[in-house]
Amino acid sequence: xxxxxxxxxxxxxxHLPDAQTVTAVKHWTDRLFSFRVxxxxxxxxxxxxxxxxxxxxxNGKPLxxxxxxxxxxxxxxxxxxxxxxxxxxxxxxLQHIQVGDEIILRPKPVGTLVHDALLPGKRLWLLSTGTxxxxxxxxxxxxxxxxxxxxxxxxxxxxxxxxxAYGQALVESLADDPLIGEMVGDKLRYxxxxxxxxxxxxxxxxxxxxxxxxxxxxxxPKMNPEEDRAMVCxxxxxxxxxxAILEGFGLHEGANSDPKQFVVEKAFVGDGI
Length: 273
Ligand code: FAD
Ligand code: A2P
Known about the structure:
It catalyses: 2 reduced [2Fe-2S]-[ferredoxin] + NADP(+) + H(+) = 2 oxidized [2Fe-2S]-[ferredoxin] + NADPH. Residues 15-116 form the FAD-binding FR-type domain. The protein is an alpha/beta fold. It is built from 9 helices and 11 strands. The chain has helices spanning 3-8, 91-94, 134-139, 143-148, 165-174, 181-184, 205-210, 213-218, 236-248; strands at residues 19-27, 32-38, 50-56, 62-68, 77-83, 102-110, 123-129, 151-158, 188-194, 228-234, 262-266. The longest helix is centred in the C-terminal third of the chain and has 13 residues, at 236-248. It is globular and about 55 Å long. 41% of the residues are buried.
């Protein structure tokens, strides 16, 4: 981090109990990046959960935001996939982190996008936009995902092709993964789409579900409450619209304490919400 940035916002001081060290950073577009940090030895989490991470503010207090852990529960490090909000209190600074810097990570994982919150089923649908892919980057690398389901369908929609790159690279890496490569086999059906730039598949997740296009393209039956389970992660508007569609297919929303056919989590808190 440059000295001018340090003047306003410094990485966590090494003596802070919740400081973790950055081990890798990759910028995917001018709005998206991913990074990896050391994992606290005591941290146990379920793939799909989120934690609070951040940097030390110049007022001497931690500036923390919710982040889905994008790495699976078995990984020795933790991975995150982040937006860069130009004037965002945290990400305007976080986007400049480099290997060796430290971030603050509160080791209290929570969240609803976990296997325990769904009843057993045949197919698992992972439905996301933008950075809503992050919890699914964890679940796509989780062995339980393939032990529990015959088929896993990953729908990810962004405005432009470049915004799909993190998800695309992750899906491509699965086949060679020594731990889960064989388990994934041909169970995973990846269905990325764009809405504002030409791509081989286009359209909103919502439109591709209601029109039946995704079922036709993947040669799958229409979603039904007996066989299909879903996890949803996007903007509030996306989540509201997808929830209504899933309910239209007869699925009911579940929670950790009350497992049902689908679960929802916000990828971010939007303006005025
Ligand atoms: P903020 O003041 O927090 O946000 C400013 C504005 O930027 C928001 O009002 C919204 O309009 C927009 N915005 C914020 N986050 C996003 C986003 N991810 N995509 C598009 N627009 C956004 N963010 C991630 O990048 N990766 C994650 O894995 C992630 N997981 C989250 C999990 C949960 C449960 C929640 C509630 C939020 C999550 N977020 C995630 C959002 C994150 O907490 C911050 O909002 C984000 O890092 C921006 O922080 P900021 O301080 O720079 O700006
Ligand atoms: P669109 O381009 O048609 O608005 P954003 O960048 O605004 O967060 O959007 C990310 C992706 O999510 C875009 O492809 C966008 O499509 C899509 N999207 C936005 N709102 C909804 C919604 N309510 N339902 C389904 N898809 C949505």
